[in-house]
Each structure stands twice: as structure tokens, then as C-alpha cells.
């Protein structure tokens, strides 16, 4: 970078843009090879915490004559240097302009990344709209969970990928390499790429053409990450991550990942042992996160924790787990986890009343939760996080009072057993209906209702043992507007971007007024996106096939209204939802 020290002092955390990294692949940009760029359109420290980005980065760089680099979203202070031409907007490792790459892949984990995506294109002098790009522009492809409704950003993408990318991404890289060596033109390369499973072109897809999401059949056939890049810049999840399973056995009706990631697939214990050893031995990290949608349901979780503790206890390596199910195995598992040090502990309650938990198919019971709270504080934990969601479909009319009562009971036990230092952190998010869930047809609370809920919670929980955290009401509303939108939302996103919208998932950067103006200027009524949808109405994402049948989702919606539960999935194949082949 050509920045002087004086210029770098103008920005926050300069290491975001010139990070010191180890374990980088020993490769570089090559005019003769394929050059691929991956982007998680958020800050460096958030993007480098994304496991999917790391997996794809590693896959591409293992292919001979393919070089893969990364780019992340610049904060406004750095953006001003780029726009003032005082700094070159270049890739992280090779320091190359983005236009030099053959393909740029964006990972969209959620909808609030879209303006950062447009900002990256604009800073790179790449036309925002796919239809405006020329022969010398990189091919732009989008993937990730948000692409299960890609319609809001289709006009900006040359290609979209639906599903799990490990196998298809190899094919994409090889096609780019071969086509480049054969001097194929851009349009021809795009036509070749849509032959890859899970890939389609919004401009070329026929009206009734279906796109089938790609699923990796056997996680044990996916090799682990060879080069886990370690950054000198602190990142959000500064540890190694081991994925135990994909899919989830529990079937919570609000959870998009629980449906798009079906069926449940489990990595073998032996594979997990070897991978954990490789990651810890080659990075120097002293913490490993065992991750999945429901880590407590991994059938070998205790044996794996015992193995890690036995091998790395003397090196003081700790084990981190995401939120745990509230069941009889939890406490035994925690005995293994706390042998080195106590990591964070989260219980996902979701709702306060049993009626609402039954409606969302959340198999959590009040007495079981209180028993677990009692036991974990006896074992020395000082802080427990409880996760709730408000505005759920078919909520009990006394839901909020039930939530407050449950939190107060947990706080009483925490203080009684854990003393003055004991803390209960109650974290709240707003229900957002997402595609491919039984609640994709449900309504969402409007902005005044979200704010009223927050006000009531803050006004009624006065216990000093309790800390309340909540998602910003306006960012939740915006995510709800975009989650079920069609192509018309692209005009709103572009308008908001041009008005200065950036980092919409960050409360200190988010400006809802810019979005309100963008909706008004685009002539799009935002409130229509949060209304209930008739189950017979055609949905923008109906052309995507995930395996789970629409009839199954409708049946689950009916069962939710009747407070009927659906039994958990397991690793044996069945034909109930349609995901198992």
C-alpha cells in the first residue's frame, strides 16, 4: 500500500486493510492462471470469522494454477481515502485491483450486507448492474444463506449459487482456468458456469426453470482446511473452528438453516479427532469451537471433548460450544468443557410460554431450564446467556409476561447460588419470516410494535442480576422487508447505497432515514413485505428446490397453529419432508 504513516493515522484499525497473516498459501496472482477473489462484504474481523469463506479460500488455493485472494468492506474512514484516490482499493494478499480478477464471489450470510456489496463493486469501478458489465469486467457470483431468496440482488449478479459450495466451487475454478487458457469470452464462460450444479444466471434462466440446491452428501469426504490463516489483527471469533454436523435434528419452525441445510449429516468421530489435532497443532490457538446448528446433539460430543482435553489439557486449550439444548446430557458435557476454563454458556429458550414453544416446535420446558440454571451456577459459572425471540407466530397472548417471569426466576437462582457476581444476560431478537420455513407465510411485527416490545421489556425487568440485550428495531424491520422481496427491491438497495447506506448491520453506522427515503424514491411500499402471505400465492423464490417439499412446510404451519410437535430427525433416512434422497 502507498499510504504514509500520516494517512494511516487518519483511520481506525489500519491493520484491517494491511493485516499481518501467517499460514497463507504460497501462491500469488498470475496472468497465466485463474485468479479468484472471495468477499464477505463486512469488516475484515467479521469476514475472517466466517467458516464458509475460509473453506472456499482453502479449496481454491489447493488447485494448481489457481490463486484465490480476499476483499472485505472498508469502513467510511477508509472509504474516503479510496474515493479521494489517496489509497488504492486492492485485494488483501496480492494487493491487486479487483478488476484484475477473473471472478469475484460474494458470500451473503444475511440481507444487511447488500449495500456493502455494492460499495465494493463501486470502489472497484465495476458496474453495479450485471447488464452494464463489459468483456473486461470480472464475473460476479453470489452465494450464502441469503441467496435462498436471491431476487433482491439478482440484477447485480452475473451468477448465483444455491447450496453448499465445496464440490461445485472446485468445478467453477477449473472452468475459469480452462476457459481462460482457451481465450473464451466472458459470455461463453458464464454459459459454461451455469452447467455447474447449483449455479444459474439471472439473465439466462428461463421463466419456469428450476434451480436445485446443492447438498454435500458426506462430510467425511470433504478434506479439512489445510491452511487456517492466523491473523495478527484480532477478529470476532479468534479461534479455530471444527464443524461437527450439517443440518439439525430439531425442526424449529422459525429457523431457516434448519430447513435449507437438511438432511442431517454427521462427521465421524475419527475425522473430528484428526481435524481438531491438525487445526490446533498448526495454528497455535488455545481455543477450539465445536460448531453446528445443534452441537449438543452431535452423537460423539462427549468422546470428542474428552479426546481434546486429554491431548491438549497441558497446553491449556479450551473448548467453546455454541448455544446448548436444555436436556439431561448438558451438565455431563459441561464437566468436560470446563476442565481448562469456562467459556460462554448460552441456552436458546426462544419463548417464555410453553404454548408458544409448542407452536415453534421448540422442545424446551420451564422446569428443565431452571434445573440447568441451578446446576451450572453450582458448577461455578458466573454468567449465563438466555436467547429469546419476540413476535413469533401464534404467540401466547401473555407471552411477554411469561418471558419476564422466566427471566426473573432464572435471575433469582443465579443470585442465590452464584452470589453478587452472578449474571443472567437475556438477549432478544425479532422474529423475521424467512424463505423455506413453515413461517415463510407469516406476518412480522411492524416497527412501532417492535419498539413497543422493547420498551415493555426494559421497563419491566429491573433485576440487577439481569442484563438485557436486543437487536435494533429498525435493522430488524429492514431485514424483514428484504427477506421476502422480489427483484423490485434492487432499486431500493441501489438508491440507499447511493444515499450513503453502509454497514446496515452495525447500529453505529446504520441510518434508517436513508432507507425510508430509498423506499419512497423507488415507489416501493415497505410494509407489504411484512404482511401475512396466502399459502397459495406464488413466492419469488419458488423456482429454487431445496428438497424439503412445500406441502411439508404448509403442514408444519398448520401444526404450529394447533401447537402440535414434530419429532426430531435423526441420521436414518425417511421420506417425511423430502430432503433425504
Automatic annotation (TrEMBL):
Coiled coil: none annotated. Residues 234-472 form the Radical SAM core domain. Signal peptide: none annotated. Gene3D superfamilies: tm_1862 like domain (3.80.30.20). Transmembrane segments: none annotated. InterPro entries: CHP03960_rSAM, Elp3/MiaA/NifB-like_rSAM, Radical_SAM_N2, rSAM, rSAM_horseshoe, rSAM_sf. One of its GO terms (molecular function) is iron-sulfur cluster binding. Pfam families: Radical_SAM, Radical_SAM_N2. This is B12-binding domain-containing radical SAM protein. It comes from Muiribacterium halophilum.
Amino acid at each position: 500500500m502507498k499510504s504514509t504513516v500520516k494517512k494511516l493515522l487518519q483511520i481506525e484499525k489500519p491493520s484491517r486493510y494491511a493485516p499481518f497473516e501467517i499460514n497463507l498459501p504460497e501462491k500469488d496472482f498470475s496472468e497465466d492462471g485463474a485468479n479468484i477473489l472471495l468477499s464477505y462484504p463486512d469488516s475484515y474481523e467479521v469476514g475472517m470469522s466466517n467458516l464458509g469463506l475460509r473453506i472456499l479460500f482453502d479449496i481454491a488455493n489447493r488447485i494448481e494454477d489457481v490463486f484465490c485472494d480476499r476483499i472485505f468492506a472498508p469502513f467510511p474512514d477508509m472509504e474516503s481515502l479510496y474515493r479521494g484516490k489517496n489509497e488504492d482499493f486492492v485485494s488483501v494478499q496480492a494487493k491487486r485491483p479487483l478488476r484484475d480478477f477473473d471472478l469475484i464471489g460474494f458470500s451473503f450470510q444475511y440481507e444487511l450486507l447488500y449495500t456493502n456489496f455494492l460499495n465494493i463493486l463501486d470502489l472497484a469501478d465495476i458496474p453495479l448492474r450485471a447488464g452494464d458489465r463489459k468483456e473486461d469486467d470480472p464475473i460476479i457470483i453470489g452465494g450464502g444463506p441469503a441467496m435462498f431468496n436471491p431476487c433482491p440482488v439478482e440484477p447485480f449478479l452475473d451468477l448465483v449459487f444455491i447450496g453448499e459450495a465445496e464440490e461445485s466451487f472446485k468445478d467453477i475454478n477449473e472452468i475459469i482456468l480452462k476457459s481462460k487458457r482457451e481465450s473464451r469470452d466472458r459470455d461463453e464462460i458464464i454459459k459454461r458456469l451455469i452447467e455447474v450444479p447449483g449455479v444459474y444466471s439471472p439473465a439466462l434462466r428461463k421463466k419456469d426453470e428450476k434451480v436445485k440446491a446443492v447438498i454435500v452428501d458426506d462430510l467425511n469426504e470433504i478434506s479439512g482446511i489445510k491452511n487456517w490463516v492466523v491473523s495478527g489483527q484480532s477478529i470476532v471469533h479468534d479461534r479455530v473452528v471444527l464443524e461437527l454436523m450439517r443440518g439439525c435434528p430439531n425442526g424449529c419452525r422459525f429457523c431457516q438453516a434448519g430447513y435449507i441445510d437438511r438432511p442431517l449429516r454427521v462427521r465421524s468421530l475419527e475425522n473430528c479427532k484428526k481435524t481438531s489435532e491438525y487445526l490446533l497443532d498448526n495454528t497455535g490457538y488455545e481455543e477450539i469451537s465445536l460448531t453446528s446448528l445443534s452441537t449438543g446433539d452431535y452423537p460423539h460430543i462427549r468422546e470428542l471433548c474428552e479426546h481434546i482435553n486429554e491431548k491438549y489439557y497441558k497446553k491449556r486449550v479450551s473448548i467453546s460450544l455454541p448455544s446448548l439444548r436444555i436436556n439431561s446430557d448438558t451438565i455431563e458435557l459441561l464437566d468436560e468443557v470446563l476442565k481448562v476454563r469456562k467459556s460462554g454458556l448460552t441456552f436458546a429458550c426462544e419463548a417464555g410460554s410453553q404454548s408458544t414453544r409448542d407452536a415453534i416446535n421448540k422442545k424446551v420446558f420451564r422446569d428443565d431450564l431452571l434445573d440447568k440454571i441451578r446446576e451450572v451456577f453450582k458448577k461455578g459459572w458466573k454468567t449465563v446467556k438466555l436467547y429469546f425471540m419476540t413476535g413469533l407466530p401464534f404467540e401466547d397472548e401473555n407471552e411477554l409476561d411469561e418471558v419476564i417471569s422466566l427471566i426473573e426466576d432464572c435471575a433469582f437462582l443465579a443470585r442465590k447460588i452464584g452470589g453478587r457476581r452472578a449474571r443472567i444476560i437475556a438477549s432478544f431478537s425479532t422474529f423475521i419470516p424467512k424463505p423455506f420455513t413453515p413461517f415463510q407465510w407469516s406476518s412480522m411485527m411492524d416497527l412501532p410494535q417492535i419498539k413497543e416490545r422493547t420498551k415493555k421489556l426494559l421497563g419491566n425487568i429491573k433485576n440487577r442480576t439481569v442484563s438485557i440485550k436486543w437487536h435494533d428495531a429498525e435493522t430488524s424491520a429492514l431485514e424483514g422487508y428484504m427477506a421476502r422481496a422480489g427483484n423490485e427491491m434492487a432499486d431500493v438497495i441501489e438508491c440507499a447505497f447511493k444515499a450513503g447506506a453502509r454497514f446496515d448491520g452495525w447500529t453505529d453506522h446504520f441510518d434508517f432515514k436513508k432507507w425510508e427515503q430509498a423506499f419512497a424514491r423507488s415507489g416501493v411500499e415497505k410494509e407489504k413485505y411484512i404482511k401475512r402471505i396466502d399459502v397459495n400465492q406464488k413466492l419469488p423464490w419458488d423456482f429454487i428446490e431445496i428438497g424439503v417439499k412445500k406441502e411439508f412446510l404448509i403442514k408444519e404451519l398448520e401444526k404450529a397453529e394447533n401447537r402440535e410437535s414434530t419429532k426430531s430427525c435423526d441420521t436414518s433416512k425417511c421420506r417425511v419432508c423430502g430432503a433425504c434422497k
